[in-house]
Amino acid sequence: MTQHTSYGEVHGPRAGEISRRGFMRRMLGIGTGILSLQFLGGTIAFLWPNVTEGLGAEITLGTAEDINSAAPDWAQGLPYIYNPARLFVVNVPAGKARVAQESGGAVEAEASLPVPDPGEDVLALWRKCPHLGCQVPQLCEFSQWFECLCHGSQYTILGEYRAGPAPRGMDRFPMRLDGDVYIVDTREVESGPPPGTVTFDDREPGDMQHCAG
Amino acid sequence: MTIEKRPNATADKNAPTQAPSEAPLAAPGAGPKLPGPPGVPGTERFRLLAYVKQESMVRVDKRPDETVLTWPHLLRAEFVMLMLMTALLVVVSAFIRAPLEEMANPVITPHVAKAPWYFLGLQELLSYFNATVAGVLVIPVYLGGLMLIPFIDRTPYRAARDRKLMWVFFLCLMIGGLIITFIGSFFRGPSWQWVWPWEGLFFTL
Amino acid sequence: MSDGSGNRMTRWLKESTVWRSLFRHGVPRDRRTRVMAVMSNVFLHLHPVAVRKSGIRLSFTWCMGGLTFFLFLAEVVSGVLLMFYYRPVIEYAYQDIQDLRAHVTLGILREIHRWGAHAMIISIWLHMMRVFLTGSYKPPREFNWIVGVFLLVLTMLLSFTGYLLPWDQLAIWAITVGTQMALYAPLAGPESSFLILGGIEIGQGTLLRFYVAHVVLFPLVTAILLIVHFWRIRKDGGISGPV
Ligand code: HEM
Ligand code: FES
């Protein structure tokens, strides 16, 4: 092939150095990159919902007395359905006692019915099924479990996973007592406990009759 | 001397196929690097810069009888198609009502909650596998797999007989998807239990 | 109009500057004017002036790409008409949909829009099948195949966001189940659900978000990708030749 002598010496930055143009080009690239990221971040920030009422805000449920007058069965352990935020407000001691009673001795509980004021021992379970989001209905009368009708996921009264296609127990919201008024903070969802968590009610799905699944 | 040579390979005319003297004036680091000291015959290497397939070049040399004019041949076909489609759409719409149920109520879950039909295959899959596994498997793998097809199937053949494996693989995917979509659509009822279509149809478009 | 005034009128019209500024060539009757017709019109110019015979055979393309495009156009037209009556507010949306059927003249627009959407999903899958089966994704068409996959996703998204808008039981529960499924994908946590739904669960925020995505965002992106798609078909040498 041809000789290359006619091309002369090669001028360029020495190794490890960067030319003026190269520098400018790089800065331009970085600048465009930063700008795009800012645009993306700003868009997401703008679209981030700021919820001020209903689910996504702090919700005042009232005192135990208020709940008892709205739902007389609460002291008997039946979870109180608070629909504006799609919640089961579970009176834990009464609920446990109820399951113990209805299960015919298969489960044991400390308290006995009724329990009109459980104090801090209350759970706010979200009625949205962690499987595909259906509304979880009130306790099944046969099993005393929550049984989702959509695809048959089953949870105990404490929202622990027992059966079905759901990936975990029922999601919940932190609850606190302000004086004697219950306040649910629905700004942050707490994921339900993983399958295999058994703190109460260790019956197997095969032990009883069910409403779904 | 190595020359990558393929039939019809045409290098860009402006590209430096000989020596790199111009390269540093352009972007540093960019541009083709030609190893081998210049001037020593037998050490230059040539790189393939572009491989322009015959098919994708402007077809000046093709015989005219292979093609027909867009106006009227293609446009006529398109027009007929457009008219047929519009007519069909209007007739179907005049006779078949779009479904509308009761007003939305977040507090009442219907006994059968199904996704739109084109996701029912996915919903059916979700009922077999652990949700996270199916989520990982189905959406990214399916879409990623689709996008990668041209890079997996590197053979230059296009006829079915030359790529039986790909055909079988792809058709299995498509038909499998069709079958589970069918099952999810017509064979699943309340609680996602198996239901024969003649026992009740739980499907809305 | 064999003679006299009619002819003179036409002649005068056709020689006027206005006519000539609109139509730069004669009636497409011969080869030259037909080529000109396609070349000088921005819309027709999506096409090359001549196509392979095989490319317009129904047995080769099944006409499915073209049909998908026409369905997209039909959706745009019927969708814009629907927008004149529909309000994306949970108090009104459902009622507006009912009124569209009961009180609007030619109240089948909603049907056209809905059946068209279903048809588009079927035709886009068939189109993808034919592109695969004829091996038309092979070089140099790899990139167009990827553009196609994005179009597929967008078509599904368009259909999915539209599904919520009637705000009936069918809509919200299908969308609940659908979004929940999508959120099983890796990297998608409760945050993305919050962002998509515009709140912790489906409500007014979701309806408005889905509406804007459905009528502006996704159609726009789809239209842009369609331009790329068609441009690439031409740059890659037209519809692929016979297998
Ligand atoms: C909104 C959706 C789409 C529209 C409107 C559309 C439209 C078209 C049209 C009109 C053609 C010309 C050939 C034909 O009619 O078959 C075409 C070709 C093509 N399409 Fe699409 N398409 C869409 C989606 C897709 C998808 C989902 C894929 C694949 C994943 C895809 C891949 C291709 C490829 C590779 C070609 C070139 C085929 C050839 O040259 O033979 N497109 N498209
Ligand atoms: S949504 Fe509850 S089991 Fe599927």
Highlighted features:
heterotrimer, B: 205 residues, mainly alpha, 4 helices, 39% helix, disordered N terminus, C: 243 residues, Cytochrome Bc1 Complex, Chain C, 11 helices, 1% strand, globular, binds protoporphyrin IX containing FE, binds FE2/S2 (inorganic) cluster
How many DSSP H or I helices of chain C? 11
Query: What order do the helices and strands of chain B follow?
Result: EHHHH
Topology, number of strands of chain B? 1
General form of chain B: extended
Shape of chain C: globular
Which regions of chain C are unreliable across 5 or more consecutive residues at pLDDT < 50?
none
Query: How much β-strand is present in the residues of chain C?
Result: under 5%
Compute the separation of the termini of chain C in Å: 50 Å
Q: CATH class of the largest domain in chain C, please?
A: Mainly Alpha
Based on the structure given, which CATH architecture of the largest domain in chain C is correct?
A: Up-down Bundle
CATH topology of the largest domain in chain C: Cytochrome Bc1 Complex, Chain C
**How large is the count of helical segments of chain B?**
4
Share of residues in helices of chain C: 55-70%
Low-confidence stretches of chain B: 1-34, 59-65
Summed up, the domain count of chain B is 3
Tell me what the structure shows.
- The complex is a heterotrimer of chains A (213), B (205) and C (243).
- Chain A is 22% helix and 17% strand.
- Chain A is of the alpha+beta class and 213 residues long.
- Chain A starts with 19 loop residues before the first helix and ends in a 28-residue tail after the last strand.
- In chain B, helix 2 crosses helix 3 and helix 2 crosses helix 4 (164-186).
- Helix content of chain B is 39%, strand content 1%.
- Chain B has 3 domains: 1-56, no CATH class; 69-98; 117-199, no CATH class.
- Chain B is mostly helical.
- The termini of chain B are far apart.
- Chain B has helices at residues 70-95, 120-128, 131-152, 164-186; one strand at 67-69.
- Chain C has 243 residues and is an all-alpha fold.
- Classes of the chains: A alpha+beta (213), B mainly alpha (205), C mainly alpha (243).
- Strand 1 (67-69) of chain B pairs antiparallel with strand 1 of chain C.
- Bound molecules: protoporphyrin IX containing FE and FE2/S2 (inorganic) cluster (FES).
- FE2/S2 (inorganic) cluster binds at residues 129, 131-134, 148, 150-153, 164-166 of chain A.
